[in-house]
Amino acid sequence: MSAKDYQKDYYKTLGVPKTSTAAEIKKAYRELARKWHPDANKGSTEAEERFKEITEAYNVLSDEKQRKEYDEQRSVFGRFGAPTAGRPGTPGAGGNFDFGDLFGGEGLGDVIGGIFRGGRPNPASRARRGADVETETTLPFGDSIDGVTVSLRLTGEGPCPVCAGTGAKTGTVPKVCPDCHGTGQQSRNLGGFGLSEPCKTCRGRGLVVEDPCAECSGSGRAMSSRTIQVRIPAGVADGQRIKIPGKGAPGEHAGKAGDLYVRVHVTADPVFGRTGDNLTVTVPVTMPELALGAEIKVPTHRGAAVTVRVPTGTPNGQVFRVPGRGVRRKDGTLGALLATVEVVVPQELNKKARSALEDLRIATADADPREELLRRARQG
Ligand SMILES: [Zn+2]
Ligand SMILES: [Zn+2]
Questions:
Q1: By the number of CB atoms within 10 A of the CB, which of 35, 64, 193, 235 ranks highest?
Q2: Residue 45: which residues within 8 A CB-CB, separation 6 or more?
Q3: For ligand 2, a single-atom ion, which residues have Cβ within 5 Å?
């Protein structure tokens, strides 16, 4: 019997009350079959349709087992509303017990959800988007510049895999709460006006579990974890939050999955730093290189060193811009590498170097580098 069959009123089709005996059903069917038999109504499509309907109804109601099942289904839908053509029941959950089958294509979770939200579920509004999930990851500096695929382990609460979220032991189903009759609410009369509060027996769930699932102790919820691969785009900065659409918690009732937000931490690099789209590097130079001019090698991020021409008389701390060696921007273009030259004072001098420096001191004795500073200080 398909889920659709439960929406048909077979008793009405045969014109008998629900309390009819098997004999009464048989009698009603015989009368109707005689009336609508195609042989007696040659060429009438209406008769043919009617004959099919009453035969279908009789086939179900004349079979004790099928009739019982049909009655149970009808009473469930009478309470919770008609079933919708939908997803199949949770496969593999609950052993041989198929919730999808029992509830005519709806998982038991749908029915519980309907009760929990207070009343009949509205199929159109039941689709629920999954929650957004936030996690974090730490990347080496180089990977943050180039982009990298990382494995993220996400832990979250979801339906218990053993009982498929029902909270009931395998092979059993929760019972409709006897105290609130499934509404999850209890009314208290307080001197003339009623107060509605969550049912104490079922704690507002509308269902009670007589035989709790051992895995989740009847809560129906369990922590689970999954590992997903996430592509971190090139150029991500420390502290940045990356949105990965559709990788959050799964939706319910065909709802869309939520989004995953990954907060990225970037470890410092011993060589390169970063300002905006530019990479920075400090390049040691000697005083003669700045004074006389030189060609110096500057390292680039994961590439060959580039040669930078330092002009004669370059001040210490001068920044040289190397285009195209920085951080990749969203539009695919690249920032620059900013190389700062910094004079290194030798800690040890060989004889020749010492002699040369002493000569230099004598040669430059007339040019006091502090003269300008002292003059300005006096003026101030
Ligand atoms: Zn209750
Ligand atoms: Zn469970």
A1: 235
A2: none
A3: 160, 162-163, 213, 215-216
Contact 322, 264 (CB under 8 A): no
In tens, the pLDDT along 28-64 reads 888 888 888 777 777 677 877 888 888 888 888 888 8
Which ligand is nearest the CA of 181, by number? Answer: 1
Strands 260-266 vs 207-208: parallel, antiparallel or unpaired? unpaired
Distance 212 CA to ligand 2 centre (A): 7
What is the DSSP code string of 171-233? T--PEEPTTTTTSSEEEEEETTEEEEEE-TTTTTSSEE-SSB-TTTTT--EEEEEEEEEEEEP
Q: The sheet that has 260-266: what strands, in order across it?
A: 133-139, 260-266, 241-244
Of the candidates 79, 84, 77, 74, the one whose C-alpha atom is nearest the C-alpha of residue 12 is 74
253, two tokens: 């009732």
Distance 234 CA to ligand 2 centre (A): 42
Q: How far is the CA of 280 from the centre of ligand 1 (A)?
A: 66
**How far is ligand 2, taken at its centre, from the CA of residue 166, in Å?**
7
Query: What distance in angstroms lies between residue 157's CA and the mean position of ligand 2's atoms?
Result: 12
The pLDDT of residue 182 is above 90? no
Q: Which residues does residue 229 pair with via DSSP β-bridges, in sequence order?
A: 151
Task: Return the structure tokens found at 354.
Answer: 């010492």
Q: Which ligand is nearest to the CA of 179?
A: 1
Q: Are 163 and 169 in contact (CB under 8 A)?
A: yes
